[in-house]
Amino acid sequence: MSRIPEEDRRTRGREFIRTDENFAALFDVTYENENWPNLEPTVGAVGSLAVWLMIREQPERFAAWVNAIKDGKDWQKALAEDYKFPRQALTETISTYFRVND
């Protein structure tokens, strides 16, 4: 697997968010998904943008979210409880931000 240059990765993620109304479904893709090899570059690109925005907006809460996951909490539960932003709100924020920025 080759690495995608950072700028290309950001562009890929941003364009996917801008053109796919259901981009948030990528957050449900797992390694077990039979389409993983084809989805991985897009999942990684969108995920990278999501993490970048989460850190930019709430760095302390991002750290709390990561620590909660490391301690075994489900990522979505940790998102709501430790990052203080449920999944729906996060995906709406990502969509709104990257549809006009970056």
Can you tell me the residue ranges where pLDDT is under 50 for at least 5 consecutive residues?
none
Morphology:
globular
Proportion of residues in β-strands: under 5%
Count of separate DSSP helical elements: 5
The chain-level structural class is mainly alpha
Biggest sheet record: none
- Rounded to an integer in angstroms, the radius of gyration calculated over CA atoms is 14 Å
Query: How much helix is in the residues?
Result: 55-70%
Assembly level: single chain
Mean pLDDT: 89
**Amino- and carboxy-terminal Cα gap:** 26 Å
The ordered H/E elements are HHHHH
Total number of β-strand segments? 0
Give an account of the 3D structure.
The protein has 102 residues and is mostly helical. The protein has helices at residues 6-19, 36-57, 59-70, 75-81, 87-100. Helices cover 68% and strands 0% of the residues. The longest helix is centred in the middle third of the chain and has 22 residues, at 36-57. It is globular.
What is the element layout, followed by pairings?
Layout: H1 6-19, H2 36-57, H3 59-70, H4 75-81, H5 87-100
Helix pairs in contact: 1-2, 1-5, 2-3, 3-4
